[in-house]
Amino acid sequence: MDTGDTAWVLVSAALVLFMTPGLALFYGGMVRAKSVLNMMMMSFGALALISVLWVLYGYSMAFGDDVGGGLLGNPFEFFGLSSLIGTAGLEGAFAPDNLVFTVPSLAFVAFQGVFAILTVALISGAIADRARFGPWMVFAGVWATLVYFPVAHWVFAFDGAESETGGWIANGLLAIDFAGGTAVHVNAGAAGLALALVLGKRRGFGRDPMRPHNLPLVMIGAGILWFGWIGFNSGSALAANGQAAEVFVTTLAATGAATLGWLLTEKLRDGHATSLGAASGVVAGLVAITPACSSVTPLGAIAVGLVAGVLCALAVGLKYRLGYDDSLDVVGVHLIGGLWGTVAVGLFASAATTAGVDGLFYGGGVDQLWRQALGALAVLVYSFVLTLVIGGVIAKVMRFRIPEEDEVAGIDGVVHAETGYDLASLGGGGGSALAAGGQSRAEARGTNLTEGSRV
Fold this sequence. Notes:
The chain is mostly helical and 455 residues long. The protein has a single domain, classed as Ammonium transporter fold (Orthogonal Bundle). It is 62% helix and 1% strand. It is built from 17 helices and 2 strands. The protein has helices spanning 3-30, 36-63, 105-123, 133-156, 168-173, 181-199, 215-234, 242-270, 275-289, 298-315, 318-322, 330-348, 367-398, 404-409, 411-416, 432-435, 441-444, and strands at 99-100, 103-104. Strands 1-2 form a two-stranded antiparallel ribbon. The chain is globular, with a radius of gyration of 21 Å.
């Protein structure tokens, strides 16, 4: 055991855990005032539920010895994690009996567990304003069990790390996904699209304004996500070493470039660079660099981020053209950004980096490119199809979507018997705009913030 590596992994796990409340703020500010609590509760509900499932069998399904073609870990190998507890107690050092590389197995458990939590929470943005909390919690548990835990095994379980044999993408296909472009973002984005199709469109979608009610919350949430994402990416080195430092820099550069790319796209298209666009550009850049952060140079990271900002800014409007209601653009940002970042490894990877692989633009041909594309496609199809089935069954059995009259009245009051803002105590008429969903100065002038849910 290396104490420096262990400290870094534990700190990184805490940073990634902080991302889920950050996501709750990010998503919560983007919905209308009457839905803010329900939106945030879906993130906190995922945090609570997946924490328990991960300890019981999730970690074992993801990192247990493979039980069939690189598709699934043995769900009983580490059931309850009791077998991973134990220290030698040498001179008070409490050296662990079980290691993953140079860190205690339970530090690795904690780090990977918060990834599982965040991935489930990400999906909730696609169904904002219209999902009942109880069925959402059932969906979260079933989806994590049938989709995330197996996919995490495919992507993150390397032979010999925790168990002898791991997943097919990591060890057979040899696709590079350093911190979860496929397992987290393509996975959640495809699930968000499927679930949005199952629940259907919000009342008034494409006709009524559905403006973010609190842009400062969105900006705060984006800032927390950027901060926590350093643990997400750099922590995936599982050591306090040069690779962690390299990944920190590529993550920083790509995120900045994506933010600039999104703002420039807005300015050219709409005439305004908006705060919501800046926050969205941050997330787009973070998503895109996640799989590529160990394989691209800092200059390559800028290219990956810049394309991601432009691409995702354009992609959020696809839902109006294609007719699906992805409330908070999980598809436009996470699915599109995750696909781009994963494929970009095959284009921009450089053998000068710690990944040690050349992509197409660095003389490596298409060998890595096809591996990246196949891995991303496999996760997309698996997640989309399974989510359609899981969501469809829950919708039939439990009435996943709230009734239309409750959606109009406000899901917070109907489902949670609470409101996000006690407007009556403010007095006067100052709360009326907030009750209706709030307005920024740009909205008051009647201008479009961006396409998609940002209109």
